[in-house]
Each structure stands twice: as structure tokens, then as C-alpha cells.
Recover the amino acids of this structure.
DNA sequence: CGACCATTTGATATGGATCAAGCGATGTGG
DNA sequence: CCACATCGCTTGATCCATATCAAATGGTCG
């Protein structure tokens, strides 16, 4: 009966909670120690827009997308979160985007209030909370910049970003669909697909399957970034 | 000789530093008290991309734009700052955008380190620094959302946003040029101009001059927001 | 008044959207 | 184990919103 709510020390230690080659900070440690493991199936909602932002999440395995819907059904994906990434942190009391699991996903969940309370005593934690938010800000600003570029520049930028975030050098294993990519980049699925095909024709990338991309020519790709 | 660097207590008290109807917080008080007044002429650079982010700014009068340039000259404006707004706060040590005065502008300048030091002792200040960053994040996310909309939706959204930020009800006095608006919205100057004209033809707005806009029909405008 | 710069207006071009099949992988029931 | 439905992706044909190119108009300031 109590098994589910027991302190998840073993899981927290074992799980691939940290990004490759990343030194954990006080806050991340706190999340790892205090965070409760939780699982979500593919396409399950983790939280909804306008829900109280009482928790903070760290991806253990799988992948997460955050998004907003416009009244007419257009969807803008705000970000993708991969293992080691923290999401759901907002200064306000409600989430301004929804979050869903892209594939079956494990996360650590921690009460926001607990972390804020800790931050009141520990400046290191306080500054980490700030840093996480600032990193999100940076990401959002880069996203804005991406959205004024051409379709090819957006797709190439996306592939380079993903390559830098997953281990595996030039091999990328995309957890998300073409539709997800399109909604992240402000393009249609057809344009994303065509652009990928064109990059393959150009020998800039290889597409062993639709979800696997190999970067063949980084310098050529770099030049296509705008 | 020392006049320029004297504590600017009188100016800080007198100036229209706070936004209309806004209750100042501990941090904002700190900026107002400790901030040194400084003036910039129209189009003068306040700081450049990749410069050390040693200072934080609060607009007293005038207006500021932050922006990034792409190698081929495309410019993306990140945000506009009006009297009472704080800008230049980054968690990292360098600015990721440049900042320029749109018109002749007065700001209060404060050393980042001083504020961070204060935050280490005062949780209220620490939490305010976080809140300011989180507000920027919110703004950037809204900006991303705007950039997937149609030209008309972007322009209308921009006008409504500006109306909510300046006093004057339905009368907006735009400090920025059409080019600035275009570079903020990811459109061309011609498209912005045409869209404005179309809104005027539709009786949604009035354009007494190119820099003055009167919102004539808010509910109609609201419907055009997407 | 005349020069200059910002803005508007007009004509045309085009990148990406939309509409519409086709195709390959995965899974399901007979 | 195979027919066939389903789903995600690609490919093709056409359209359209916005960019681009070009010129006219309107302030502003010496």
C-alpha cells in the first residue's frame, strides 16, 4: 500500500537523471533527492494550461512537449524536454502552456513550494531557480529568432539543436513526429518533410528512417543556419 | 566634478519611474534608490550583444528596443521597453541581445552585482529578480505565439498590447517606427503599413498620424487576434 | 522652398500553405 | 500467415499571403 509513495531513493539514484557530462547543482540534487518518480504514457497530459503550477518536473526518460493551442486549432509547441531537462517552472502560480509526454516518459516531480522554501534558506538554490528560468528565457528568445528564418534555416537549426542535446554525435534519434516538429517551427508537416528530403538530396543529412537523422556535413549545415 | 556621480535621490523620487497604477516592490525600490540616472539619444546603443551584462536598467522616459542581427542584415526585435519597465537582466554574464534608445531616453542604471548581493540577504529582492526574469520569459513565449499568426493578427495583437502598456485608454502614441514594428512582428514595413490602412478602412482603428493610433472598436479588434 | 526620410500605395513574384494522392511500416482479425 | 485497415510520412499540383521591387506622397527641418 505504501510502496508507491515511499521515498524513491533508489530510483532517483539509478535513473539517468542528469544530462551527459553535466555536473549537478544544489537545486538539481534537491529535485533528484526530493522528487517523486512518475510515469506518463505516450500523449498523456502532464499538466494543462491555466492549471496551478504547483509542481516542477525533471525528465528521467522519454520526452516532453509543451504547447499552446489557438482557438482555431493551430498549435504552437514551446519546447521539447529530454532526459535531464527541467520543465514546468513558472514564476506565476499557473502554467502558461500545457505539457504532454511525447513517448512513454518517466519524470521526477517535486513540489514547487518545497523548493521555494528551500531557496529562502539556501542562496544557491534560489540562484538555481533563477538560472533555470533564465535558461528558459534564452531558449524562448532563440525560438523567436528561429521563427523569422526561412523553412530550411529553421529545420537545419532544429536538427543542429537536437544533435547538441542528445548523446550520439551525428546520429539523432528523434522522439517527436513530423507534426510536432512542424508545430515547433511554425511550418506545415509537408514543408518539414520536403525540406528534410531536400537536405538528404543535398547530401547534408541521411535519413535511415523518418525518426533517425544522421548529420553528414556539419559545415554545410552550419552555413544553412542563417 | 562629482555632480554626475552624486547619489541621484531627487531624480529618483521625482521621475516617472513607476508604471501607472503599479505598486513598487522591494527590488524596484532598490533600483530607484540605488540607480544612477543616465541619458541616451535617439538610436544610441545602450549595450551590445555579447557585452558583459554588468548593469540592469529601468526606463524613466523614452523607449528602448532590444534586438539581434542575423549575418545577412535581418533584424529581430526582442522587445520594446517603456517607462517603468526593467531590461538588461540576464542570468548569464553577457547580454544576448543589443539594446538601443528608440527616442531620447532616460534610464536608471544599477550594478547587477549590487542587486545580487542584496538578494543574498533579502529574499524579497531575490524573488523579485526571479519574477522579473519570469515576466520576460512570459513575454518571449507570447512573442513566439504571435509569430505563427497571420499578419493582421500580429498587427492587431501588437496594437492591443501597446494600448494596455501606455496610459491613454484607446489613444496610442507609438514611439517606434514602422520598421521597428515590422522587425518585431517578423513582417515587412509594407505589410505593416498596408495592414494598418486596412484596419482603418474597416473602421477598427483611426490613424490621425502614422505614430498615433486610436482604437475605435476593441471587440472587433479582439476578434481579429486569433 | 527644397532636401531628406518615413510612410503609403501599386504591381508583380515567390516561398510555403493547401489540397490531394501515394506509399511504407505496423498491427489486427480471419 | 496473409489480406487489409490504419497511421505517419512523402510526393505532387496548385494557390495565396506576404515579400519584393518600384514609385508617389507627406512630414520635418534647415
Amino acid at each position: 500500500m505504501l510502496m508507491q509513495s515511499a521515498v524513491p531513493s533508489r530510483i532517483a539514484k539509478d535513473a539517468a537523471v542528469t544530462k551527459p557530462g553535466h555536473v549537478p547543482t544544489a537545486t538539481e540534487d534537491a529535485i533528484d533527492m526530493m522528487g517523486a518518480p512518475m510515469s506518463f504514457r505516450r500523449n498523456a497530459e502532464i499538466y494543462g494550461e491555466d492549471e496551478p503550477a504547483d509542481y516542477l518536473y525533471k525528465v528521467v526518460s522519454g520526452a516532453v512537449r509543451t504547447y499552446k493551442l489557438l482557438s482555431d486549432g493551430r498549435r504552437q509547441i514551446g519546447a521539447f524536454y529530454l532526459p535531464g531537462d527541467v520543465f514546468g517552472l513558472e514564476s506565476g502560480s499557473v502554467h502558461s502552456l500545457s505539457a504532454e509526454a511525447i513517448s512513454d516518459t518517466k519524470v521526477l516531480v517535486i513540489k514547487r513550494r518545497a523548493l521555494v522554501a528551500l531557496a529562502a534558506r539556501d542562496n544557491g538554490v534560489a540562484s538555481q531557480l533563477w538560472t533555470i528560468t533564465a535558461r528558459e528565457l534564452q531558449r524562448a528568445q532563440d525560438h523567436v529568432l528561429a521563427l523569422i528564418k526561412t523553412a530550411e534555416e529553421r529545420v537545419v537549426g532544429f536538427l543542429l539543436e537536437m544533435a547538441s542535446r542528445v548523446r550520439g554525435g551525428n546520429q539523432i534519434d528523434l522522439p517527436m513526429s513530423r507534426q510536432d516538429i512542424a508545430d515547433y517551427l511554425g511550418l506545415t508537416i509537408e514543408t518539414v518533410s520536403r525540406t528534410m528530403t531536400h537536405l538528404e538530396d543535398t547530401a547534408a543529412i541521411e535519413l535511415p528512417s523518418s525518426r533517425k537523422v544522421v548529420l553528414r556535413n556539419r559545415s554545410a549545415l552550419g552555413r544553412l543556419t542563417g
